[in-house]
Automatic annotation (TrEMBL):
Transmembrane intervals: 213-237
Gene3D superfamilies: 3.30.420.40, Winged helix-like DNA-binding domain superfamily/Winged helix DNA-binding domain
One protein family per Pfam: ROK
Keywords: Membrane, Transmembrane, Transmembrane helix
Lineage: Bacteria, Bacillati, Actinomycetota, Actinomycetes, Micrococcales
PROSITE patterns: ROK
Similarity comment text for this entry: Belongs to the ROK (NagC/XylR) family.
Keyword Transmembrane helix: yes
InterPro entries, A to Z: ATPase_NBD, ROK, ROK_cs, WH-like_DNA-bd_sf, WH_DNA-bd_sf
Organism of derivation: Myceligenerans indicum
Keyword Cytoplasm: no
The protein, known as: ROK family transcriptional regulator
């Protein structure tokens, strides 16, 4: 049961709801308020749930009864060290009620997948070689891989989340992912039809940003730069996941960063991707002595800082997160990028701005894909 309302043309989607809404959406919204609180704060009494959500005790009691009947929530006894009076029974999310299947399609050579608990524990992981498949063959392989992962789950599967490269709309249609041969492909719909479970598909960098927001403690105003074969960004502003009018928000990889730079796969020259992709970074440092390699990485950092400065200023972000190989990103590159950002933005923007490595490492897209499902099915993010 999706609890987020979706309509075309919206710039984004509010994450982590905190207040009441119109009556027609109230039930789903209130349900997500309760689940949200239990997800982030842990076991809570009904009275404290009422206080935290501003809902009445009666509404909370009804909602909790329904959630217990659905197997999502359980009673956990009383809090130890309770003061005088009738001890309140705590209710909490049942971590073992459901599992989520996540797929990370970022790597062109190998897709990664996992079975993940509602609390973000990876229970099982698998990888599958793509062997150069693209187009329909790749779609078939993704479906087979998803089915194999569903079979590994040890309790009912809440849904399947997929982080895909390319531009993906809010219904899980891949508008374009050129190097996968996917154009206007309704991937979420195809997988739902074949597997019979709810499927969410989103751009991989957006998915990674969601993973860091929910499981990595990232700020509600942040940009995550996913650095791999390509370079993409996911953006959260004031707690809203930014899609953009054509669902291409965050496509920073193909903004021109170097005048008369190298030819890019997109046909233009000097895109950020031509200096910041892992392949570009590896070839920039290969065979060089450490001092020269560090200087070259710092130069890329300055290019990155220059590209990010207007973005960070326009959105007044609290954090920029880098996700990718730490041996290349976390050092002279990151330091030079931070310094350049500081130099090119006014103090009101850059004061306290953090440019740091993402905290979830290799699992960032897989965990984000789990949040796609949590968000769509339970209203939790
Ligand atoms: Zn390009």
């Amino acid at each position: 049961m999706p609890t987020t309302t979706r309509s075309s043309g919206r710039v984004g989607e509010r994450l982590r709801a905190t207040s009441k809404v119109l009556p027609e959406h109230a039930r789903a919204h209130n349900r997500s308020l309760v689940l949200q609180h239990l997800f982030h704060e842990g076991p809570t009494s009904r009275a404290d749930l009422a206080r935290a959500t501003s809902l009445t005790r009666v509404t909370i009691s009804d909602l909790v009864s329904v959630l217990i009947a659905e197997g999502l929530v359980e009673e956990l006894g009383t809090r130890p060290g309770q003061r005088v009076g009738k001890p309140a029974i705590l209710v909490g999310l049942r971590g073992d009620a459901f599992q989520i299947v996540s797929l990370d399609l970022t790597d062109a050579a190998q897709m990664r997948g996992a079975v993940i608990s509602l609390t973000g524990q990876v229970i099982e992981r698998r990888a599958l070689d793509v062997d150069g498949r693209t187009g329909d063959e790749l779609t078939d392989l993704v479906a087979r891989f998803a089915r194999l992962l569903v079979a590994q789950a040890t309790c009912p599967v809440l849904g399947i989340g997929v982080g895909s490269p390319g531009v993906v709309d809010d219904r899980g249609r891949v508008i374009e992912a050129p190097n996968r041969g996917w154009y206007d492909l309704p991937l979420a719909e195809i997988l739902t039809d074949r597997i019979g479970l709810p499927v969410q598909v989103a751009n991989d960098a957006n998915t990674a940003a969601l993973g860091e927001f929910t499981y990595g403690g990232a700020a509600a105003g942040m940009l995550l730069l996913l650095v791999g074969l390509g370079v993409g960004a996911g953006i959260v502003v004031d707690g809203i996941r930014v899609h953009g009018v054509r669902f291409a928000a965050g496509e920073l990889g193909h903004t021109t960063a170097v005048d008369d730079g190298e030819l890019c796969a997109c046909g233009r020259r000097g895109c950020l991707e031509t200096v910041l992709s892992t392949r570009a970074l590896r070839s920039a440092v290969e065979g060089k002595d450490p001092t020269t390699a560090d200087a070259d990485l710092a130069e890329v950092g300055r290019v990155l800082g220059t590209t990010l400065a207007p973005v960070v200023s326009a959105l007044n972000l609290a954090e920029v997160l880098l996700s990718g190989p730490a041996d290349l990103l976390d050092g002279p590159l990151r330091e030079a990028a931070q310094e350049t950002l500081q130099q090119r933005t006014m103090p009101a923007v850059s004061a306290g701005l953090q440019l740091r490595m993402a905290s979830l490492g290799q699992d960032v897209v897989l965990l984000g894909a789990a949040v796609l499902v949590l968000s769509a099915q339970l209203g939790v993010s």
